[in-house]
Design a protein that fits this description.
There is one protein chain. With 167 residues, this protein is of the alpha/beta class. It has one domain: Rossmann fold (3-Layer(aba) Sandwich). Helices cover 44% and strands 13% of the residues. The chain has a 3-stranded parallel sheet with strand order 3-4-5, sandwiched between helices. The chain starts with a strand and ends in a 9-residue tail after the last helix. The chain binds guanosine-5'-triphosphate. Guanosine-5'-triphosphate binds next to loops. It is a lipid-anchor.
């Protein structure tokens, strides 16, 4: 991935969401620098499951892990059961839950960034990965004279809505 003026390599693991693979996925948390929490906007159970994933994150992930909440499949507008506002509320709730669980300074200040995506149309997919990569890059470079990268501001500025005609 090119992040001007440098490039970045991301190693991406798609962990199995099913309960029966849970013990295997624990192993991935420990060394992860970022976690993308995905639910399916056409599947309420996947939305409700985010709470369980947060508990897992607290237990197994690094304390300063970069988190992002994504509501996927927004191209399936006719099957949508989870509203965008519910996702936004959940992103705030994620913060409260994690604050109870840990003292992640980044989360305390800004909350969990949230956006809706479509793997089918590509809506916001590049943005999600670019935002994560930029955040990690800035953290790793630690340049004192560089302005701090603000993940939330970046996501807010760049995010595209699914709207009626933009999948
Ligand atoms: N319409 C639509 N379908 C999608 C989208 N993303 C994934 N799918 C479909 O949803 C189904 C499940 O996708 P997966 O990527 O296997 O979902 P998963 O959450 O990784 O599933 P697990 O491996 O069980 O955790 C597949 O049929 C995909 O083609 C999307 O953005 N829009």
């Amino acid at each position: 991935m090119m992040l001007f003026p440098l490039s970045s390599a991301l190693q991406i693991w798609d962990t199995a969401g099913q309960e029966r693979f849970r013990s295997v996925t624990h192993a991935y948390y420990r060394d992860a620098h970022a976690l993308l929490l995905l639910y399916d906007v056409t599947n309420k159970a996947s939305f409700d499951n985010i709470q369980a994933w947060l508990t897992e994150i607290h237990e197994y992930a690094q304390q300063d892990v970069v988190l992002m909440l994504l509501g996927n499949k927004v191209d399936s507008a006719q099957d949508r059961v989870v509203k965008r506002e519910d996702g936004e509320k959940l992103a705030k709730f994620c913060v409260l839950t994690l604050l109870k669980l840990c003292a992640n300074v980044v989360l305390q200040e800004y909350g969990v960034p949230f956006m809706e995506t479509s793997a089918k149309s590509g809506l916001n997919v590049d943005l999600a990965f670019t935002a994560i990569a930029k955040e990690l890059k800035h953290r790793s470079m630690k340049l004192p004279n560089e302005p701090k990268f603000k993940l939330h501001d970046y996501v807010k500025k760049e995010v595209r809505g699914s709207g009626c005609c933009r999948f």
